[in-house]
Write a structure and sequence with these properties.
With about 450 residues, the protein is of the alpha+beta class. The protein has 14 helices and 19 strands. This is Glutamine synthetase.
Length: about 450
């Protein structure tokens, strides 16, 4: 038992923790949990906790169902809404096979492999996510969806539910060791955004899962409903999750060069070129639902075309401004990802795509200086700008031919993403359906 695990055992005893929830994620990004008694914790660290993997979406087949949860002691936190009566803590787990190897179908393991691959060529990745979501008034029904306010971007709503809600969520996040950079009202009625501070890629994915869970919990406890559905209202902005990626080589930001265009290094240009080269292949993971493509092609500043730009919000990849003397904050912003994506798989795909651009020395095409949405098809073709997939079915077809995605996800996860995506496409087609609302909001018609 290592030092961190010993500290957790001491903290569990000191805080009189009654239950410990072991969290893990299935392939589609749904949080799963099992509660154990503190008396089982030492065994969980040493041997893992067994469960039936065949009962979890995409985790294993019936004839190889035995799997183990191994808690990551560094993720130990008290659940802020369960501190007084029967205190409850949580840890995030890796999923193992009985032979002691990390399961090929564990999304967290997929990201860990991508991080290891980047480390082998000398790089680490930091991630700053911007999480968008809508707050709704209950009851929510198929023919009744009402946001908590009618405010818009950056509005201050006096005595508004959104203001108080964001403050309570931020306090709870910080209680769980997750630092928040800022929060604000987004463009749609009842739409909000909470931005988490940059951390390493694995911790960022853990934080995204935790933040989404906490946002839903706080909303329910305050008589509201929170949803990360990519496109809830036809005539309002969708909910994305812009991801700011920083690439480090040792202690230096590898994206930065004082002499480069926009202070962007050759490595940074190649990293962006890799993201663009594989953008269409990545779509089926970062935009995994039929509803995702209503956001991408439904306006509201969602990116629809594969290009990059400096401070150009119509571009798929943006190179933001940063303060002089803050070279360590140099970053690129990937703008297509949904608020509902599986963060482990999505970040794994983005990291591998960017690193492949560096390894293959892919040359970055000129930036998009104009509003890409305002160009004609002929003008976009002349600039070499291609479109992102227009539907989940198209995204799956593109991914089906991607060797990079097959290697990044691993055979089992790659095959499952394709099968599950085809199943969702056949069921939901092109409309916002009762089944779609059921998936994101728990609404039944």
């Amino acid at each position: 038992m290592d030092h961190v695990q010993e500290q957790v055992l001491v903290e569990v005893a000191d805080r009189n923790v009654r239950f410990i929830r072991l969290w893990f994620t299935d392939v589609v990004g749904q949080l799963k949990a099992v509660a154990i008694d503190p008396g089982q914790l030492e065994a969980a660290f040493a041997e893992g906790i067994g469960f039936d993997g065949s009962a979890i979406e995409g985790m294993s087949r019936v004839y190889e169902s035995d799997m183990l949860l191994r808690p990551d002691a560094t993720t130990f936190q008290m659940l802020p809404w369960r501190r007084t009566e029967d205190p409850v803590a949580r840890m995030i787990c890796d999923v193992y096979a009985p032979d002691g190897k990390v399961s090929h179908t564990d999304p967290r393991g997929v990201l860990e492999r991508a991080i290891d691959n980047a480390a082998k060529v000398g790089f680490s990745v930091m991630v700053h996510p911007e999480i968008e979501f809508y707050l709704l008034k209950p009851p929510v029904a198929f023919d009744h969806i009402e946001p908590v306010d009618n405010a818009s971007y950056f509005d201050h709503v006096a005595w508004g539910d959104s203001n108080d809600f964001r403050r309570r969520v931020i306090r709870a996040l910080e209680d769980m060791g997750i630092s928040v950079e800022f929060s604000h009202h987004e463009g749609g009625p009842g739409q909000n955004e909470i931005d988490l501070k940059a951390v390493d890629a694995l911790r960022a994915a853990d934080n995204i899962m935790t933040a989404r869970t906490l946002i839903e919990e706080v909303a329910l406890r305050e008589g509201m409903v929170a949803t990360f559905m990519p496109k809830l209202f036809i005539d309002q902005p969708g909910s994305g999750m812009h991801l700011h990626l920083s690439l480090f080589e040792g202690g230096d930001n590898a994206l930065y060069s004082a002499s480069g265009q926009y202070q962007l290094s050759v490595t940074g240009r190649q990293f962006i070129a890799g993201l663009l080269a594989h953008a269409r292949e990545i779509s089926a993971v970062v935009n995994q639902h039929v509803n995702s493509y209503k956001r991408l092609w439904g306006g509201g500043e969602a990116p629809s075309y594969v290009c990059w730009g400096h401070n150009n919000r119509s571009a798929l990849v943006r190179v933001p401004l940063y303060k002089p003397g803050k070279e360590g904050s140099a970053r690129v912003e990937y703008r297509a990802s949904d608020a509902s994506m599986n963060p482990y798989l999505g970040l794994a795909a983005l990291i591998q795509a960017g690193i492949s651009g560096i390894q293959q020395h892919i040359e970055l095409e000129p930036e998009a200086e104009d509003d890409v949405w305002g160009l004609s098809d002929q003008e976009r073709r002349a600039l070499g700008i291609v479109a992102l997939p227009a539907s989940l079915q198209e995204a799956l077809e593109v991914m089906r031919g991607s060797e990079m995605m097959a290697q990044t996800l691993g055979e089992e996860v790659y095959d499952y993403v394709l099968r599950n995506g085809e199943r969702e496409w056949r069921r939901y087609r092109r409309q916002i359906t009762p089944a779609e609302l059921e998936r994101f909001l728990g609404v039944r018609r």
